[in-house]
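[recover] target loaded
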């Protein structure tokens, strides 16, 4: 069974709102649902979202410190 769209949204929330890494979010989702997100494009997007969030956070820290 594939959990792609719902898993993608859950992982996005964990990454963007709670500050989790993409790897931690994907692992938590897989452990909770017993099935990983299988679409490579979704996984790549989650890793990019995490990378962009970290870069933005680093830039903000540099600007305001």
């Amino acid at each position: 069974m594939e959990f792609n769209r719902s898993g993608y949204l859950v992982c996005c929330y964990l990454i963007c709102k709670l500050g989790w890494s993409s790897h931690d979010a994907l692992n938590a989702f897989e452990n909770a649902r017993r099935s990983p997100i299988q679409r490579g494009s979704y996984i790549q997007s989650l890793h990019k979202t995490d990378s962009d969030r970290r870069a933005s956070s680093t830039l903000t820290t540099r600007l305001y410190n």
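[recover] notes: Residues 5-64 form a domain with the Protein-Tyrosine Phosphatase; Chain A fold (CATH 3.90.190.10).
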